[in-house]
Description:
The complex is a heterotrimer.
Chain A: E1 2-7, E2 10-15, H1 22-28, E3 47-50, E4 53-56, E5 69-71, H2 77-89, H3 99-112, H4 118-124, H5 136-150, H6 156-160
Parallel strand pairs in A: 1-5
Antiparallel strand pairs in A: 1-2, 3-4, 3-5
Chain B: E1 3-9, H1 13-20, E2 25-28, E3 40-46, E4 55-57, E5 61-65, H2 70-75, H3 77-83, H4 86-91, H5 97-100, H6 105-111, H7 117-124, E6 128-131, E7 135-138, H8 139-144, E8 152-158, E9 163-170, E10 177-188, E11 191-199, E12 206-210, H9 220-232, H10 244-266
Parallel strand pairs in B: 1-3, 2-3
Antiparallel strand pairs in B: 4-5, 5-8, 6-7, 6-8, 9-10, 10-11, 11-12
Chain C: H1 25-29, H2 36-39, E1 45-51, E2 57-63, H3 65-68, E3 73-77, E4 108-109, E5 115-121, H4 124-133, E6 135-140, E7 177-185, H5 188-194, E8 197-205, E9 217-222, E10 228-232, H6 237-248, E11 255-259, H7 276-285, E12 289-292, H8 295-300, E13 307-316, E14 322-334, H9 340-349, E15 360-369, H10 383-401, H11 405-412, E16 419-420, E17 426-427, H12 433-444, H13 446-449, E18 452-454, E19 459-469, E20 480-486, E21 492-496, H14 505-516, E22 524-526, E23 529-530, H15 545-572, E24 579-581, E25 585-588, E26 594-596, H16 597-603, E27 613-618, E28 627-637, E29 643-653, H17 660-679, E30 709-714, H18 737-749, H19 760-780
Parallel strand pairs in C: 1-12, 10-11, 14-15, 21-22, 29-30
Antiparallel strand pairs in C: 1-5, 2-4, 2-6, 3-5, 7-15, 8-13, 9-10, 9-12, 11-23, 13-14, 16-17, 18-19, 19-28, 20-21, 20-27, 24-25, 25-26, 28-29
Helix pairs in contact in C: 6-7, 9-10, 10-18, 14-15, 17-18
Amino acid sequence: MEIQFILNKKQVTAEVGADTVLLGLLRDLGCKSVKCGCETTNCGLCTVWIDGKSRLSCSVLAAAVDGHEVTTMEGVKEEAEEFGAFLAAEGAEQCGFCSPGFIMNVLAMFRELEDPDIEEIKEYLAGNLCRCTGYMGQLRAIKKYMEKRKSPVIKVREVRG
Amino acid sequence: MLTIGNYVKAKTLEEAYELNQARNSRVMGGMMWMRLGNAKVKTVIDLSGLGLDKIEESDNVIKIGAMCTLRQIEESEALRNLYGDGFAEAVRHIVGVQFRNQATVGGSIYGRFGFSDVLTAFLALDTFVELYDGGTIHLSEFVKRKPDKDILLSIIVRKSKRKFRYESIRQTKTDFPVIACAVVTGIVHGQETWFFSVGARPMKAELVDKAWEIPRDASEEMIAEYARKAASEFTYGTNMRGSAQYRRHLAEVLIRREISSILAEER
Amino acid sequence: MNRNQTEVNIENLRVVNQSVPKVDSQALVTGKAVYTNDLAPSDCLIVKIVRSPYAHALIKEINTARAEAVPGIECVLTYKDCPDKRFTMAGQTFPEPSPYDRLILDQRMRFVGDAAAIVAGTDEEAVKKAMKLIKIKYEVLEPVLDFRKAKDNPILVHPEDNWKSLCPVGADNKRNLCAHDECGDGDIEAVLASCDYVVDRVYHTKANQQAMMETFRTYTYLDAYGRLNVVSSTQVPFHIRRILANALDIPKSKVRVVKPRIGGGFGAKQTSVSEVYPALVTWKTGKPAKIIFTREESLTASSPRHEMEMHVRLGADKEGHIKGIDLYTLSNTGAFGEHGPTTVGLSGHKSIPLYGKTEAFRFVYDVVYTNVMSAGAYRGYGATQGIFAVESAVNELAQILGMDPTVLREKNLVREGQVMPAYYGEKTVSCALDRCLARAKEMIGWDEKYPCRDMGNGKVRGVGVAMAMQGSGISGVDTGSVAIKVNDDGFYSLMIGATDMGTGCDTILSQMAAECLDCEMEDIIVSGVDTDSSPYDCGSYASSTTYVTGMAVVRTCEKLREKICQRGAQYLGCPAEDVEFDGVNVTNLKTGESISRKEIGNRVMCFNNEALSASEAFSSPTSPPPFMAGIAEVEIDKETGTVEMIDYAAVVDCGTVVNPALARVQTEGGIAQGIGMALYEDIVYNSKGRNYSNSFMQYKIPSRLDVGDIRVEFESSYEPTGPFGAKSIGEIVINTPSPAISNAIQNAVGVIIRELPMTAEKVYWGMQEKEHAAESREAAV
């Protein structure tokens, strides 16, 4: 069947099977940032946004995104780079395989929560597993990123519009 | 591996119901569990275009559309105002935000899973389910039925002056529960009544109600005795996550804590 | 001058000892297509494995006709299509200590999930359909599932005659024995007999999954020269070349292995888990092929940690002087012997030497075959298991002596300059273990918190301690070589065979080169490994890269500096003795005349008869151990037994810290994995050998809500044989959580758990038992 949806702000048309999974479709469409880590919705690596909300693309039928808006890391490259620099400064991207899903959910969190505290951050990101870092470096990166966003010199949110 | 022949986004409930009567048709919720099975589904029916994704509050009830996500439950002001943090507590441990943005209440309830926090929580509140063909029936009744070809439209929670507590024990914080216990109390036909729902035993949640009048200043020993009685009404089993004996003990502890917490609030 | 001969002043380092971001970080954080599956051509055949449903069986008949008839199916391969020459999948230096006990496909199935057939086709759907159509008749045999009953069991896991062991490791396939050894120093029985106290306990650690986020995966194709090209997520590209040549029975010259970015390894990818399957398909069909292990396959047919049961006898006098340690380890290698003979050695050789004053030790082990999935290499490599046992025994001794376990350790821990008989007689040239322990105690507030604090809400918080050591490469074996060439405009190509698996070795080796060559990080390019062009390196395992390959970098740079000076002098028309290279210019110290590196780089590309490059190797006769101390604080719910991680203070002596940010993350990550091992992770089999822990739903690695706070500091010693004084960091960091958490539980509620994982239920029943024992004692009185 043919579906039409918005992928990273561009209208796309794709021919999919009834059981095609969004994860595979997105990779076929060139969004290689989207990774599969577990196949059972437990790891968060395949996180993308559908209509602005973090979802697990491994268990979304491609057919079901017809008429919706999908965003992958390729669609928020600048923001990802900006936060990613904080992650890299901590050495907390490590193998990097979980980074795209993690960063997508971090960016979703900042769209949803105004000024989350540590516990809220940890809970919001609990569905993003990482085997390399032990999570502490990721948290340091988030804290420093938040400090920078708060600083009056560079207001990231305003820059982003 | 799940295979699907056709995907149909239903335009009306009638259409969805008709399509679902075929032997190999399945209604999809969040696609969390169906995808993990090996079913050969001829037609999968998507209800997402039917407006079943709202939590609606009226004078007497809160009506939760079957396509509402667990995240909507977690963040529902209506549920929080009425029953406190119990609902958020029941769902917030489930995997992660992405999962809860996707898993539906209808899928959780319809699946009648043993591990279901959602079922355990709703069951304790003596909830109703609205079915397309079967009308509105008690959730406790629905749970006992075998999955059939009817379509679950909504979950209906009565608005009444009740107290609700939910607690679970898990190995890792986002794992399935080792045990899940919900306790609700309120006045039913003029009689103080306590509802206990225990899930992940590991069998699916069941509901027990007791016409107990527990004094607000009951001693810890007395409360413990009530909890022991309540917990002993359920059967427990053993699996990877825990033994039957341990589960029974945990149920007792959690029920006792929940009763205590309710009494403390009412004191 | 060899920089290594004089101690480097850490303060003066410009690039080393700095938290430089990883050189590939930008690509990783923006999700660039840099991993194996991102790079695989779209026309690869999809390769999948039909797996045995039985723990032990013989294939009697295998009918592939219907499967082969499925449109899109390229081939269905069975044991009849594979060479009948056994090999090992263990990524180790030749001759491998692991027995040659594998075929690509075998007629005998040795665990649930063993490979029975390979299916390759143009798309996944066709392959899955074909898999269902393969008809296999099995003769189901009784399996050996209990590793305690495996040795000399009449049922043999490897009865075949062409099984062979290349090294004298005490293996005997007719006894289900993959390895056996005994060693010791002094008269252990006499010493233990002379002790006031002997702790005599058995500890049991389970198989654990490395659970790297990127599962095993490989793609293969034939190139223009008809050679087999293999792009794989591996830690050991050069070993893979040999393994594939052995498996396919083809010359090694026919194989090229390329390692792109890897999504984590932790030892899992030190075994050739996925490579042989697409390699066979490509070799047979000439077509590109790809295999991506599902998570289920990665959890059921992979290379987890060896399950071990360890019997410790530890003797001490009344004052708490540990005088003797006797250890017997029984290790379960599962269906195949990968890393079986070697992991077990570390259970004793890297636990017993932590105690420097012992008068005698004995270490005996058996490694047995059973019908569960083959074990392999996992970070810590046996040391993790042994340290759990020995450190737990020391903590039990402390309790018996009524002594603070940190004080007991302070009396006994190994110190700088001591000879370690149980560590091959090596001397601790660099050791700050005493400082590590002291600092960890300060960090956690040990003196205020030991043994426990009742929180007044039904919860109690306890603290617990453990120490650890590891090695830095395999002494006398591990070899790293490095090549650096000078290019136009004078930029350098750093060529390494060490494999960055996300840990950052591309970065830290570049840092070392930049330090040695007095240049900036930007002046050096580095890339992944290609066995055709990278200099030989055994690969990244055994905590070898920083130490072994790092030294090769230092040596190569020294050589290259000499050559740059010679070349500069030649261009300046003066003797080499008269010039100095400051990283930018070669200057004639007599005339002040100079020539830039840029110019030299350009000039060597014209009318030149000698390449401006250097290549050196390094291998060490010793393996200097890093040391660390870890202290856990846990909170236990006294009614439910639930254990919550509160805090973890860790102090590591890895010698000079080459990149503090990366070393810290390594440590935090290792501790989190160790917490998983201690509290949650378990591979559960049913009575027929079926693995229940087959998904991330059932095999629970810790989320960020499960690890509490992890705090890391470094107390550096200076290792004179290492690059800039560095030792290793990669593995040691997983070793302290299990014993430290066990000790924290012990100190909080008095329950000692000797079998991992330490679930809430085990703590609960432990508390119950204690209560009943107390009650019956009272009753008896």
